[in-house]
Amino acid sequence: MRAFVVLSVVLASVSSVFAQTASAAAYATTEAPIAKAGVLANIGPSGSKSQGAKAGIVIASPSTSNPDYLYTWTRDSSLVFKALIDQYTSGIDTTLRGAIDNFFNAEKILQQVSNPSGTVSTGGLGEPKFNIDETAFTGAWGRPQRDGPALRATALITYANYLYSTGNTTFVSNTLWPVIKLDLDYAANNWNQTTFDLWEEVSSSSFFTTAVQHRSLREGATLATKLGVTSSASTYTSAASSLLCFLQSYWNPAGGYITANTGGGRSGKDANTVLTSIHTFDPAAGCDAVTFQPCSDKALSNLKVYVDSFRSIYGINSGIASNAAVATGRYPEDTYYNGNPWYLTTLAVAEQLYDALIVWNARGSLNVTSTSLAFFQQFSSSVTTGTYPSTSTTFTTLTSAVKTFADGFVAVVAKYTPSSGALSEQFDKSSGSQLSAADLTWSYAAALTAFEARNGTTFASWGAAGLTTSCSSSGSGSGGGSGSSGSVPVNFQETATTVYGENIFIVGSISPLGNWDPNSAIALSAANYPNWQVSISLPASTTFQYKYIRKYNGAVTWESDPNRSFTTPSSGSYNENDTWR
Ligand SMILES: *[C@@H]1O[C@H](CO)[C@@H](O)[C@H](O)[C@H]1NC(C)=O
Ligand SMILES: *[C@@H]1O[C@H](CO)[C@@H](O)[C@H](O)[C@H]1NC(C)=O
Ligand SMILES: *[C@@H]1O[C@H](CO)[C@@H](O)[C@H](O)[C@H]1NC(C)=O
Ligand SMILES: *[C@@H]1O[C@H](CO)[C@@H](O)[C@H](O)[C@H]1NC(C)=O
Ligand SMILES: *[C@@H]1O[C@H](CO)[C@@H](O)[C@H](O)[C@H]1NC(C)=O
Ligand SMILES: *[C@@H]1O[C@H](CO)[C@@H](O)[C@H](O)[C@H]1NC(C)=O
């Protein structure tokens, strides 16, 4: 009897493995063309579901009520076009050039549209969404969202690098670069300011935003160097170093996961972190934890904690083994539409795992550390920490289990996809039926990139290989820890009344304060108006001069003389309180 029981368990698990893999493979085959068509239908001017959208404008969804998503978000559009630009530049789809040029031209226009976040030079690049006729959206919203410019820069840099490699260097320097530079300057100047997160709910610092800003500035510095713009290259590299230090502070060692936002009052378990891992994947960076690569021990531990947080809260996940794939959502505390699984988050989990498999197979080894042990023990309770070469049975056991696990997430998505193949934003946590916006462009793009990772397709490196930090480890992320050795955070507060559309900046005699150049001045946040505030990482024990300036419709007004003077402390942090004069 015992033998029979064991055998039937093995057979059941083999058949479920087979079912998941077969289901994922079949789904990738049938859904890929539907997802591609779904993306293209939502892009103006000729997309079949995007009437009224100007050329190159990506609508989030054709849905006009419950919810109204007929807008263009910089984040969604840039992620969608990154996927299309990857397809074009890698030769998967050579027909996309016109659509990409339209996208570039549309974004170039949107950059210049004055909006409630400001003008192009006063913070307007942080505006999250626009009307599809390229006018400003002026209703109340969670703004600014500082991931948008970085994601747009990343998409356009991928295109620029390709055009440069084909010899079209004049177009890159004269046409693409000025647009890319605006976004990179915005990221470099504003990375240390609060932002709404990618779900547009929490205003604090956000892991996804920090990570995509870091990525954009690294590849931006490389492009700037190639184009001979060395001053920009050094500005971007310096900001990227600070960002990489700051990125480390989101790791929660006790919980074994990445805390998604510094504010928000939630657990911090959030698809934000899994999306970061796939959107900053660099196959050349191996399993580096410093950039949270998909196969890094920290990102794998995080994935398990994130996935497990949905096992007991969604009815459709009940009865599923604790080491098998489930439907996942944005974050477990979510109440939007009552809190449900999303296609793009469940697909992101699969994609992170496929990315990890790509690297393990390419490197011919897999490492189990104390940080990733719990992740791997899901698949083999006896596994211990160590390095497993591809010739070992442990490598084979673990990689095939991870592949099955990954396919399981695609199989979950397949199970809750209607026969038409249409993907909305969410599916009901109890019934599995579709909810919220129909034909969500990002859902389709998420399917495309997950399928590409599943079949082993990779795209250009962004320069993550070999990055290290030299941050002081004190503070471990609790506010006030110094950013990098030799620097201290100084919180500048300036009390100033302003008119609508006018903003306060700080500029001074050292490079983090723009070397007196008003174009490089650092914007202050008006979150506690009329107290404008910004925290800036400055070199320790350094004396410098500075002033606050006002910018209004491009005009700059300086504070009256004399210049203000300040000496940073040797360590710790400092609050400097000033009043406009
Ligand atoms: C460079 O690429 C742009 C964008 O597609 C195109 O308009 C232009 O004709 C190209 N120039 C050359 C010399 O190929
Ligand atoms: C600014 O950077 C410092 C040092 O990395 C960090 O402690 C602080 O939380 C950051 N603030 C924001 C709003 O990003
Ligand atoms: C595993 O660790 C070894 C030794 O640190 C390293 O050389 C190798 O690149 C690692 N493999 C992967 C896939 O990270
Ligand atoms: C990989 O998958 C993508 C998306 O389904 C597809 O476009 C591409 O042709 C596939 N590549 C290979 C080599 O199978
Ligand atoms: C303030 O600093 C600038 C730049 O060094 C200098 O040109 C200016 O004369 C200074 N103002 C006063 C009143 O010293
Ligand atoms: C500046 O203001 C903050 C609170 O707004 C206060 O905690 C801090 O002590 C002040 N710093 C100085 C130097 O007065």
Automatic annotation (TrEMBL):
* Annotated region described as Disordered, given as residue ranges: 560-581
Look up the domain of life of the source: Eukaryota
- Provide a GO biological process annotation: polysaccharide catabolic process
An MF annotation (GO) of this entry: starch binding
* E.C. code: 3.2.1.3
State the Pfam families in the record: CBM_20 (PF00686), Glyco_hydro_15 (PF00723)
- PROSITE patterns, sorted: CBM20
Q: Which UniProt keywords apply?
A: Carbohydrate metabolism, Glycoprotein, Glycosidase, Hydrolase, Polysaccharide degradation, Signal
Query: Which residues are noted in the entry as substrate-binding?
Result: 141
Identify the enzyme class.
Answer: hydrolase
One GO location term (cellular component): fungal-type vacuole
> Where does the secretion signal sit in this chain?
1-19
The catalytic activity, as recorded, is: Hydrolysis of terminal (1->4)-linked alpha-D-glucose residues successively from non-reducing ends of the chains with release of beta-D-glucose
Write out the catalytic residues in the record.
197 (proton acceptor), 200 (proton acceptor)
Q: Give every CBM20 domain span.
A: 482-581
Task: Tell me which SUPFAM superfamilies the record gives.
Answer: Six-hairpin glycosidases (SSF48208), Starch-binding domain-like (SSF49452)
- Sequence similarity: Belongs to the glycosyl hydrolase 15 family.
- Protein name, per record: Glucoamylase
Question: What is the native source organism of this protein?
Answer: Punctularia strigosozonata (strain HHB-11173)
